[in-house]
Each structure stands twice: as C-alpha cells, then as structure tokens.
Amino acid sequence: xxxxxxxxxxxxxxxxxxxxxARGVYPTMLxxxxxxxxVEYLPYDPESARVAARIAKLIIRSGCQLxxxxxxxxxxxxxxxxxxxxxxxxxxxxxxxxxxxxxDGLGFQRQKGHEPFPESRPMRVGxxxxxxxxxxxxxxxxxxxxxxxxxxxxxxxxxxxxxDLRCRYEAEKRxxxxxxxxxxxxxxxVKGDFIRRALIVSAPDLHVPxxxxxxx
Length: 216
What we know:
alpha+beta, Beta Polymerase, domain 2, 5-stranded mixed beta sheet, 17% strand
C-alpha cells in the first residue's frame, strides 16, 4: 500500500501559501501552555493534519516569510506514535532571530527539561485545543537548505510510501517502550538511530548528519 506524498497537512506553506480547508475559514487557534508527559504509543489521528494546517496559518501570518512542513508520525496516515504534532519551520539564511521571535510572539514556549535543543537550532513547544482535545506541538526551527530540514521531509515521505518501513518503525517504538524508555529525550535519541539507518539505505550517496532532529 502506497500513501500519496501529498497527504493532508503536507507542505502546509510554501511562499506564504497555506492549504485551504474544505470546511471554510476557521476561527483563530490559540497556542497554549505545553505540558510534558511520558512517551505514549497512540493510534493515528486524522485530525492532526487539520490542526497542523491551522497552526501553519498562524505562523505564516506572522509575516516572516517562513515555510512550514508537517513532519513526524502524525504526518503519516496510519502511523502510530506519540501523537505530538511536529512542524518543520524553515527560515531563510540570516533570519533565525526573526523566526524565533515570531513563534514566541504567537505563544510558543521555549523547550524545557533535559538536553533541550540549542537556541542556534531551537525547538519551540505549545499546546492547542481542538474538538475537546489538547494537541501538543513541537516546532523545529531550521535554516532553509540544511541537511536536517531535507531529511525530516525525506523520512516522512519514506514512511508514507513504504508500509514495511512504517511497520518496522512502529515496532521499534513498541520495543523502546517495552524496555522502559519513556523519557522524551532518551526515546528520541535511540529512535534516531533507526531513522538514520533508513535514510542511509534509501540514499547511500547523501550525507546524513549524526543526529536527526526528532521531537524531544
């Protein structure tokens, strides 16, 4: 089974263009407080793509010429995972401070806890309410043209197109949780080894950085 790489929530913004909703204009979505919790293993929620699209619209309206991609497991139809919406926020070279300030102004918060991403490659977090549920969100702020930005999109697309890889990725997550690895940073670091191997196998000639920015 092959999933179309243009699934809902994909390429949420390119040069200011945001995917329109068939349901019409939504009221403004507010970025609320982020609440940390142990890693969970949850079924795919199709509403995640709609939430991601609405958050992207907020980010684009900040006027910073940012591009937004919905990445991670919630961007892959049918994929089980933590249920956190991962967004790749791409900024043009020299505009990192502007990008950070834009997200902070929308209500996103700095990452807390053990081993946060550095401010030179920040991750902002937030929580949004939608249909009676709070969706936790990780916004990965990465410079345009970087290997990391490329690989976050590549891995998402590999999972969409390769159901065997997706099933092995889900099995890897279950194995980590069965081993008692439930803290976000450790879970992401160990899971990152699987991601790097998948990227190298799919394109051995491409450089894959030693660490991939999975959600922490």
